[in-house]
Amino acid sequence: MRCWNNDEILEYLSGLRDRGHLDECPGCRSRVEEARGVFARRLVQPDVDAGFFAAQRAAVGSRIGRAPGRWLRVWTPALGATAAFLTLAMVTLMPPSKQEPLVSQDDREFYREIYASVQSEVPRAAQPIQELFDDSSKEN
Ligand SMILES: [Zn+2]
Fold this sequence. Notes:
It contains six helices and no strands. The chain is mostly helical.
């Protein structure tokens, strides 16, 4: 007759093994009862007052600043997604507004005049050199 090892005792306590050997062996019966007592003690809930956890939650809340309420925590992601969807829908579905030209008619005229005054056949960088040879521009 072989006695159970710890794994076999655990299997019995877990309901995975028949009682079989325990009926014949008082030593293994006592080991099983001892193990059952150990598990029972471990499974007992710690004797802590419920107010302890409430106080602990309050302390954590005060440390991190007042946490948002449940309503805000639950609905913030949904509100954000809805806002994003509405923005996307507005951008894609709304007809394009009549675009105002960036440059008004007056500005166009102004730029045309400037362009005409700057425009010449001689490049701007070459103008001083050309003036050296242009007698009409140098009246000393
Ligand atoms: Zn045994």
